[in-house]
Amino acid sequence: MGRKTFIITICVLCALSLLSVSFGLIKISVSSNNIVNKVALENNRNLLAGSKETDSVDNAYSFSIPLNLSAAAISSSEIDLRWNASDDNQGIQGYEVYRNNELIGTVESPAYIDSTLASNTAYGYFIRAFDAAGDKSEKSGIIECRTLPDKVRNISVTAGTTSVILTWDKTDEATYEVEEDGNIQNTDTNPKYIDVHLQPATSHSYRVRASNTGGCGEWSPTINVVTHKLSKDPFIEINGMVVIESEHYTDNISRGSHNWVLCTSFDGYSGEGAMQASPNNDASWMKDYSKKSPELIYKVNFSTTGRYFIWHRCYGIDDHSDSVHVGLDGKSMETSGSIVMDIGQYNWLNRTYTWARAYIDILKTGIHEINLWAREDGSITDKILLTTDPDYKPAGIGPDESPRSNYILTPRM
Ligand SMILES: [Ca+2]
Ligand SMILES: [Ca+2]
Description:
single chain; 413 residues; mainly beta; Jelly Rolls; 7-stranded antiparallel β-sheet; 3% helix; 41% strand; binds calcium ion
């Protein structure tokens, strides 16, 4: 507001007064006997008193139109307007500023900050120059500008072992930027950000701001989040589904010369990586594998009994390195042994060596062990999904990992 200077010349219709004001080369006289201002220029332009005569003379000195009007949103409530000074300085006393066709102010110099506007709202502006007599130039071009969005509201944070999910209230006509540990990540119009591939028990900071055609709004306060430490707590089955990153085992048991090791050699894994039966030297375990093959154990707390189809996201190295066995509570199961893989890509499969669908039956609620043994070394397991829905088929990296019993939903900010 400090940049605005109002120089409004008021026509005072007072019966006996006579007011004279000097503005550089301009002298204005206002008389009650005239219904418009009399204007006299000190350079001896003899302007006539009276509306008709004044109009006709001033038209001879018509101003240029204010050019190059620009508008920039500088906050959620302010728009900064600039334009070129009209080049006919003789007699120009100021400029009228119009917002949405309504006069909102006058200024002496070619700049104006419109304030007290609504956030994330588009406004149209034009400018007219005027002289001491109140004569006006043509309108400038109309320019439209949108105020910046407000800070995003109701940011909700969900921390996992290797992931953080942020959601917030949607702002109309806006996209969002998320700053993660000091780096700005571009996002889209979806008010959600999913950060994956984080390490367990590490600290991360986030800020979110909305952007529109006017620019970027203010950042939200910084949100500090700590991912959960690797847990041995059971995964929690919800609504007949449990999703497990293979690298989040409860136990990892080496047998013979083989064990399961974290593998990040092949792009496309979910979570922090996948687990590979290593070394890959042509070993295989077709029988007695529950006693001889390296094993990964996952504890799951089931509240829903029934048949669970086993979807396995996996990566086969070659046709001697592309199969595992799944079991329940330490026992091998005919319905879930010899689960095969696609070679050379991560893919979800739900079939055994005989092309049958792989499944286990959970007969009692409570905590059970899901066991995964290597069938051929070199095989890679990325993610395991158990579902009671026979029609469900995961795609991509599949759904987010299921919560564990220490899972925390942080309160809304
Ligand atoms: Ca092999
Ligand atoms: Ca994984």
